Amino acid sequence: MAQNHPSPGLAREAIGLREVLFQSITHMAPAAAVAFSIIVGANFAGGALPLSVMLAMVGCLLVAVSIGQLSRRLPSAGGFATYAARGLHPAVGFLVGWGYAFVEPLVAPLLFLIFGNVVASTLNQEFGWSYDTWWVVSAVAAAVLVFVLGYFGIRLSTGAGTLLGLFEILVFAALAVTLIVQAGEANTLAVFGTGFAGVEGFAGLSGVIAGSVYTILAFIGFEAAAPLAEEARDPRRTIRLAVVYSCLGIGLFYVLTTYAATVAFGPERFAEFPLSGNGNPWDALARGAWGAGWVLVFLAIANSAIANANASANAATRTWFALGRIQVLPRPLAHVNPRWRSPDVAVVVQFVVGVAVAVWLGLQYGPLPAFALVGTIVTA
Questions:
Q1: Is 5's pLDDT higher than 70?
Q2: Spatial separation of the C-alpha atoms in residues 297 and 300, rounded to whole Å
């Protein structure tokens, strides 16, 4: 009688601090967050948005330290489900696990929609290509790329994430420095006070606090290193450092880029920034500062969507793997590819879910309304 051999476990000690750090960084999608998320806060904080960013960073750092301490004690692919089950009660862990297992897989289709919209809009604007055709092609291509990175193992996936993350950060940091230099005498520390928070109905500190809400959304993802605990070297140390360092590092990056945009555009009228440049204000800033170099900013934003989708797929599939292993989810999700040591069934399911949700909702409502719909579900 043939024996049933259990599938091997995940690739133990396959990745180090650098890869785990960029798992968290790319899940935050720093370039896309700067271009789409944080600037919404200007509707409330006006020219005091840099102060909103700093307040959000402090709050998120407190959370990051707490998550780091939990990961130090409970390194597991189950991540938050394990923390809640061991720290509070198994029933709470059960609910948290189900919630995370449902929401995290929706992040990838959200990013496929962003990627499809960014690429199709640019191709339509520059070359007149059909937007309706190319957003679908681009979204599916993004899903295929993320599937390939995930299927062939955590080393390939996180290695690619490291390169993608470095590119988007360097491009936006370089643009920010350029804008600050070009601003000259317009540079001012007054944007870190409440003097420019004069939006109607949200004057002063209330506007700053309201603006920080959108910056907090831009920080979501620093905790995504936790599900890689079973594949990281020295996970009790590595996960803790990755969560805290990514939160602090990208927080400072957000402060730099938001300050640059504020002084370049003008803090006294910064509430108008989100709708400037035909709804793509960072594109307008890049064209004004770099000319043809705007292409680098376009690539950084598109790259950011891919990197974020890749990181979210890593987190989702490891969570499914952990829950499948204890049979909270179907047991096949715990299957591991014997060669690549990836949770291959979970990777395939994530690919199917990502394509189906992105394309179906995009065709029903259009990529941007669908993006808003999925984003509301994910952040609720």
A1: no
A2: 5
Which tokens in the block code for residue 206?
């209330």
d(CA 103, CA 97): 10
Place of tokens 């594949």: 231
Identify the three-state secondary structure at position 199: strand
User: 3-state class of 326 per DSSP?
Assistant: coil
Amino acid at 296: L
Alpha-carbon distance of 121 to 119, in angstroms, equals 6
Q: Please, what sign has the CA dihedral across residues 30, 34, 40, 44?
A: positive
Cα distances (angstroms) measured from residue 118 to each of 240, 327, 367: 34, 39, 10
- Report the DSSP beta bridge partners of residue 203: 198
Q: What is the pTM of this model?
A: 0.90
Written as six digits, the tokens of 50 are 């840099």
Residues 6+ apart with CB under 8 A from 345: 332, 333, 334, 335
Give me the phi and psi of 313, to 5 degrees please.
-65, -40
Residue 305 scores a pLDDT above 90: yes
Answer yes or no: are the C-beta atoms of 321 and 337 closer than 8 Å. Answer: no
In one-letter notation, the amino acid at residue 132 is D
Tell me the C-alpha to C-alpha distance, in Å, between residue 68 and each of 207, 242, 282, 366: 31, 8, 33, 39
How far apart CA 38 and CA 41 sit, in angstroms, is 6
Tokens of 253: 């990056």
Q: What is the pLDDT of residue 380?
A: 54
CA dist 50 and 229 (Å) reads 34
Query: Mind listing the pLDDT tens digit for each residue in 21-51?
Result: 999 999 999 999 999 889 999 999 999 999 9
